[in-house]
Design brief:
This protein is mostly helical. It is built from seven helices and no strands.
Amino acid sequence: MKRTVPLIIAGTVGFVLIVSYFIPYTESWGEDAMTWFNILAAIAFVLGAGNLVKMHLKKISDQQAGWGYSAITLAAFFFTLIVGMLKIGVTPSEKYPTNAWAGPYDQAGSAFRWVYDYLFLPLSATMFAMLAFYIASAAFRAFRAKNVEAIALLTTAFIVLLGRTYAGVWLTDWIPEESIGLEADALRLDNVTGTIMNTFNLAGMRAITIGIALGVASTSLKVLLGVDRSYLGSTDD
């Protein structure tokens, strides 16, 4: 019974959302379902935050390896939570000028916005900047010219990478606007890169997107019809 009820709820809500998308008369049903989804999502955020605090507190208590990072994580979490919920630095809105909390929590000049702009964004940029070196290292190992396909992939990647930089523009800037019957300096690396990205890469991406859409549709039907029950935590009945 405890597995049957969630299956019925998931299937019913899923088909209601599908029907409300195609039948205008039932649009309000989909809006009501999304309202309940937002409520459940808020509850899930609370449970996730509680689990985060529990895990890091246990790591600090046991003084496991890297427990200092857990302390920093909890400090940053509680600080951001407090300044966001208390709306520190938020000014009243024009609609409610007498209510100090009426303004949005992330308005310019608020403490939450300061944390986001001067702590979160720089840290995120630093993390992704570091990932670039790992991606370059992985690409170097993957693009080893062992066969014809690898050579084609390596050559294309080199052209695209070079064409996205000033060096590619500078190296082929000497090519005239019309070369061997081609117009608009098509042999310059920056234009070759644009052709690769807008023609060959775009065609491949569209094929991948179609495959992803078919996969999502089939997986969604399996979930709605109760065939796939992995989201319940187990595939056993």
